[in-house]
Amino acid sequence: MPLREKALIARIRRAAAKGASNRAAFGIGDDCALLRVPPAQDLLVTTDFSLEGIHFRRDWHPPESVGHRCLARGLSDIAAMGGKPRAALLSLAVPAKLPQSWVDRFFRGLLRLGDRFGVSLLGGDTSQSKAGVLADIVVLGTVPLGKAFLRSGARPGDRIYVTGELGAASATLNLLFSGRDLRAADYRAHFYPEPRIAVAGFLREKHLASAMIDLSDGLSTDLAHICEESGVGAQVRSETIPKGSIGKSRQEIDLGFALDGGEDYELLFCSPRSKRVPRRIAGVKVTEIGVITREQRLRLQRNEKTFTLKPQGWEHFKR
Hints:
Mean pLDDT: 91
CATH architecture of the largest domain: Alpha-Beta Complex
Number of strands: 16
CATH topology of the largest domain: Phosphoribosyl-aminoimidazole Synthetase, Chain A, domain 2
Strand content: 25-35%
Low-confidence stretches: none
Radius of gyration: 20 Å
Number of domains: 2
Structural class: alpha+beta
Number of helices: 8
CATH class of the largest domain: Alpha Beta
Order of helices and strands: HEEEHEHEEEHHHEHEEEHEEEEE
């Protein structure tokens, strides 16, 4: 059973104090968090749910993984805008019978990731839930005034790039649904995704990207989001899509997972053809996979044939 609310908050406060510290931020202990925004910076704000039974299952995911993934979702959104993460707020509701050790390990995973990126936990809320763990993370970041990447900046002729490798997270989830008992350390793309903060910062500083999005819903769906917001289309070459691998044997996954699987938390960005994009940025592989077109349709080129690419990634409430 978790500690009573006052004791639980005190415990969280002590754990947060050991992590990343931000001299421009004041958090747990007052009615509101206080964050001083640097001059000539825009404020970025994002929020994401992590819901038991939807985004994770306690019999599949170690508590540290749940905490890590909870914060990683928000950090990846900040990266997609070219920003620097500054602080986080967390509202957490847990069942009365949940062991306090699970809560401690959840915060261990969340705060460990936050410490790596200089993100302080400034507060939030706690509550009892009738069934299941519910976590709502708010991540705050900053970006130089007017320099945020938007989804609406892609133009015909722009090249399309992705970071890292795609599909391993959803391929892992497929194994979990099949009943496999997996060791989290062998499937890190799913259990411990890596937000691409450094890559995004480089792209912004070098003025390399015209539009960007993080790959949380799947390549086909997230590329469609950019095209819709920019009023353009895209053509992607299947053989260039960097497919991930899973398990100790590093088994390569099927193309379908790379196209339509979600929760990769890699970056998909467009760049004018006049720009030279490095093949590696901050140690992360960067791959050109296609081109933005004037015709507002998505197409996939495969085996010298061209097909319509339908957005078939993750969408809540989809039948």
